[in-house]
UniProtKB/TrEMBL annotation:
Family stated for the protein in its record: Belongs to the glycosyl hydrolase 63 family.
Residue ranges annotated for the Mannosylglycerate hydrolase MGH1-like glycoside hydrolase domain, each copy included: 220-525
Xref: InterPro entries: 6-hairpin_glycosidase_sf (IPR008928), 6hp_glycosidase-like_sf (IPR012341), Glycoside_hydrolase_63 (IPR004888), MGH1-like_GH (IPR054491)
Matches recorded under SUPFAM superfamilies: Six-hairpin glycosidases
Gene3D superfamilies listed in its UniProt record: 1.50.10.10
Keywords, alphabetical: Glycosidase, Hydrolase
Record-level Gene Ontology MF annotations: Glc3Man9GlcNAc2 oligosaccharide glucosidase activity
Lineage top rank: taxon: Bacteria
Protein's name according to its UniProt entry: Mannosylglycerate hydrolase MGH1-like glycoside hydrolase domain-containing protein
Record GO biological process: oligosaccharide metabolic process; protein N-linked glycosylation
Amino acid sequence: MEQNAKLPNIVGEGGLFGFSGMDGETNSASGFVATWGSDFSLLFHTPIRRRLSVKLEAEAEVVYATGDACRIAAPSGPFTATYAAWHTLVGRLPEGAGLQLQYEDGTDSDELPDGLRVTRDAKEGDSVVLRISGERFAVCFGSTIAEAADRASAGIGIAADVDSILRRRLRIFDEAPALPDAGHQRLLGKCISVMKVNTLSPEGGMKQMWSTPDRVPHRHMWLWDTVFHSLAMNDVSPDISWQCLKTMLDTQKEDGMIAHQISVGGRLSVITQPPVLAWGVWENYRKQEAVDKLAYALPILENYLEWDMRNRDVNGNGLLEWHIEGNVNCRSGESGMDNSSRFDEALTLDAVDFSTFMALEMDYVAQMAVELGLKEKAAYWSERARELGSRIVSELWDERDGFFYDKHMDGKFSRVKAVSGFLPLLLKELPAARTECLVGLLRDPEHFGTAYPVPSLAVSDPLWGTDMWRGPTWINLNYLIIKGLRLQGREEEADRLTDRSIGLVDKYYRQYGVTFEYYDAKDERPPVACDRKGPVNERYDIRVKVDSIRDYHWTAALTACMLRQKYGV
């Protein structure tokens, strides 16, 4: 298959364009990563943002556009651009094309000798310089004007060999499997592109490679996001996948806690997140079979599970409760479902998702112990997993509604029909009759059987909407539900949900050129019109208001997983 057929070929507003840690040193602290504008412009997200406007002929057509390389065909010749290093963007211009470096507000750059253009941040001291020499150009970041100018001068020389750099940047796509559907092939390429651009080199508090949900605006590292990213990275580079997992494991505090987020500078948050690290480590082990990595991870994971049980079971009944916050837009950031209607009352709940994740983690830890020949440890965690799974099935199931709910501390069900109620499909202890009830609700258009399931809140709930976890469909939860359906032997339903999930991501990739954070389950609004912790901003600008994030990593990663599983590659 020709390589170009494997490459994404849509430039979408908000799409990421930056240097990847898979190719060398990155520098997140600089903010020198760009997003595409609605035209062929690039907005660099330094503390004071700069815009590089690219003027091409009207007939220009995108040949490919990945997260770090692009080629746009024009009648007078191609426009090419790629990163030679984290601080240096180089390329070639066709005859008659124009480049203009400005501040975001439209103020023009200043002219330096030799035709260089510079934008300088007076507060931070950093500079971005544009140099054009014939058909070649370089855009470079520096901590001083001199450093940026020197890099730009060197970049002009590097640009002479831009085609060689492009080949190196695109090498990752050579290993991508060939799919029989041309559209899905492009989508897989887009997913790999998003994965690559959101993978970074060691920096600050990160001692190995690491991954972020999105270079803009999140920038930092999150616990359960890292695991979802790793599942797809296992198919690209199991070693990089392990490094990212280890970076998160290594953030463990002395008491066993693993924080939900670590900043580039090494600051840890004070809450945790869904415990899924053992799952990530186990899936990585299945790819590498490196027993030493299991031996490294096991005590960390055990200590983390013990911390959760000590600190997130206030009523001592064995079921876990998320930390609840005072922020009305984020009652439970710890749950990962920040603003879910589950938490509107700001009350502590025995949480069906937290408890299910814990039971699964206990089982994965038991499997690791088996691999390491630790029979007593394996038996201990296996029994803990069985006990917790049985407790979830018996205590969080509402027979009247045929659904799993969170439970208040007084023993009453919350009765908020949220997507979390499907996660017990992942439990081996789930009776077949209850699987049948859950599948029925997944199919029911009055509850979860929407145009593009699975809504994060049942459409029957009067609070359903398009605001994050208050109604939209999330690919990570779909992936977990698909996994649960297969465990319960419901292959037809799993295949159907896989196809709908791929179709949803593909539909809006073709329309907007990006993978989104979440989607309208009813498909009445495009992702760009969905709310996010308040009404959507009319003009796309993440520094005014963050809406459904673009080139979102776990959407891309798990879509890549589903595409590989669908085609058996």
